[in-house]
Write a structure and sequence with these properties.
Structural class of chain A: alpha/beta
CATH class of the largest domain in chain A: Alpha Beta
Largest interface: A-B, 69 and 69 residues
Number of domains of chain A: 3
Oligomer: homodimer
CATH topology of the largest domain in chain A: Nucleotidyltransferase, domain 5
Chain lengths: 408, 408
């Protein structure tokens, strides 16, 4: 039957309507609270317009949320010259509910606390464990970091945990099917997390899938229907939003851009194949190109910036061209309006943007190429972490009443 | 804003609900008629269940459609042993409305008449004109073929024309942005067709986009949410259905699989780039591989079948492997459940399916690879033509009342 599988994550109101089998019956309370979460504050008039319901319905729903302590309402100072009584402004109460977001990257693991409405209030970072049993050790690390943020079992208002990993994640249960750069195959990560932190609603997602979600809801892709987010660390991954909705594929594995074969006789890849795109534009390839072998993160970004001055301009241009060719393949396939480059690829775009664009234009058909912009993440280095928070909010706010009653 | 652009074509009821800004207000008459069109006959009880409305609402809507002459209702012969009165069976009236579908391929242009409910009743074929002015000449050819089918301006009940072309089509106005194998760039094909046949509702679409639509509604992909259709003629194109909905991209150009760069130092492509997938798996490449240069269509298919016997097994296997690698790239990117191979690629799948699968499995990550099946089109050679009919039905049946009143 047409219609979305439960594992899909919606990207907005229309998307949510599409996902649920009985869209008209979706509780309006959830829709209103999600509007407040994404937009912060809205007037009653704006809510009425966005929800397509009448004023008294909005008033009733707002009163219900106010009684549950999750919204407040106030009359704004009168706008100069505006006639009539200004519409009441409704805002969410940020401290009423919080979620923890975590980003497991190859080098470091970051954990942060996000309040309702999307603000980040605290952050911790530690080196990511590797080797045998790294799944369980990362779970222990996360539990420690979460406790450290003051969000243990007794902390009021902390209701969920979203975790981003650089790998193919089965959304239904958070099993990490394949994360070559963590050395994982079929790691039951979601199960381990839920066991360790039973008081939290746990969601595990692919890093790029969560990056595109955050950029689409709160970043440079806000209001853009068709977006690709390319995460660039040791591995290269992709997150897709098409028609305003996350495109996760049949099992949640869509967006594995890094493993496109772009050169059949190319370098061996950690996935077992040869000539994958990530062997040409992943962090190790970029580091080799700019004569900064083994460097990562901010050091590597600095090496990219200084590449031309150090006589590595041509090698950088070759990487940038290959980046553009791969983006061109993606553009030919799904015709997005915006491609957001994350991780170290941000720096390649800043330092060699013309070459990236030239590779794209040489590969994509003109009709699709002329529609697409390349952009830096609006949320900068926090895009993936913010997405890990958003994916939990989406699940929790889809049916907020039991949650609000339990935490009242 | 989230939500689909008007140019997107829905792929079922949930998809239609998602597309319209006010899903709950979408006229139920349209939903019911679409169910009858896709399914042929349904009992009142089935309609009640599928539409999620009550029995009296269904009874009222059916009465309205019967009065308009587009549906009939009858009591079935009693099912053996079933207790109680059997539910009334509602059927569409196939002759009440018809559309013309056309498929402009590089060699031949086919035109067929489809009745409400999807049955094909008549067909004409002619060689496709090429060279200067081929756009206008194809429009004239189509007008002649349409007249020949007895569907001129005076023919009752023929209400639309859907045309499939092998190129990138701007869905909003039917402009063919790029069709290298027809020699077209920015050909205002939709405009010319509408001028020549003002009595018909005209829709122009990419051949593979229409192929996947038909296979999803009536073919091997019925009930499958995430599907790729690969059309293989001189050019190689793709049509995508994701989450039950056609994925057309920002401008309608998604699915240009043939122009993925799969070998940077490969053969020059008619698009101007080098090493595009279609230079390795398009009909000319297949013909070279099986020592049947210049052959097309059924001749080429026969040559593929006899390739092993004629000592061309290894060359065929190489093509099949390259076909699998490209499919693997697509699988990594969007994680479909089903890839349907059309045109001459059907024969490659039949004759060298193991090699295709091996190329796919060597390229796609296991999590995504193990979810995907390869299949032949359920509608065979008629998939694209049937899709050209379906895309017109979708637009016409979205608001059927004015149409039914005008043709009563």
């Amino acid at each position: 039957m047409p219609g979305d599988a439960p594992a899909r994550q919606p990207g907005g109101r229309a998307a949510i309507a599409a996902r649920l089998p009985d869209a008209p019956r979706r509780p309006s309370l959830a829709v209103l609270l999600e509007h407040l979460h994404v937009s912060g504050s809205l007037t009653r008039a704006e809510l009425t317009a966005r929800m397509g319901v009448n004023r008294s319905t909005v008033a009733g729903l707002v009163a219900e949320l106010v009684a549950l302590g999750v919204a407040v309402e106030e009359r704004p100072s009168r706008a100069s010259g505006a006639a009539g009584r200004p519409s009441l402004v409704v805002s969410s109460v940020p401290s009423r509910l919080q979620v923890v977001a975590a980003e497991v990257a190859v080098d470091n693991t970051a954990v942060a606390l996000f309040r309702l409405g999307g603000s980040l209030t605290a952050r911790r970072t530690a080196p990511t464990p590797h080797g045998p049993g790294s799944g369980r050790r990362i779970v222990e690390l996360l539990r420690g970091l979460v406790d450290d943020l003051g969000t243990g079992p007794d902390a009021a208002g902390v209701v969920g945990l979203g975790v981003a990993v650089p790998g193919a994640v089965r959304r239904s249960d958070g099993c990490v099917r394949f994360a070559p750069n963590l050395g994982w195959t079929d790691e039951p990560f979601g199960h381990l997390l839920a066991q360790a932190m039973p008081h939290l609603h746990v969601v595990v997602g692919n890093d790029a899938d969560l990056g595109v979600l955050a950029e689409h809801r709160r970043g440079v892709a806000r209001g853009v229907e068709d977006v690709v987010f390319v995460s660039g660390d040791v591995g290269v991954g992709g997150g897709l939003v098409m028609g305003g909705m996350p495109l996760l594929g049949a099992g949640g594995y869509a967006g594995e851009l890094g493993h496109m074969t772009v050169r059949p006789d190319g370098l061996p890849c950690r996935c077992g194949a040869r000539g994958c795109w990530e062997t040409e534009v992943g962090a190790p390839a970029i580091a080799r190109a700019v004569s900064a072998p083994g460097q990562r993160g901010e050091e590597l970004a600095a090496a990219v910036r200084s590449a031309r001055a150090r006589g590595r301009g041509e090698a950088l241009a070759a990487v940038a061209h290959s980046l553009g060719v791969g983006i061109g393949n993606v553009v030919n396939l799904i015709n997005p309006q915006l491609v957001v480059l994350g991780g170290v690829l941000q720096e390649v775009l800043r330092s060699a943007g013309d070459e990236v664009r030239a590779g794209l234009d040489a590969t994509a058909l003109r009709a699709a190429a002329e529609q697409v912009r390349l952009a830096l993440p609006g949320l900068g280095a926090d895009a993936v972490l913010a997405g890990a928070a958003e994916v939990v909010w989406q699940e929790l706010l889809a049916d907020p009443l039991p949650l609000l009653q339990a935490t009242a």
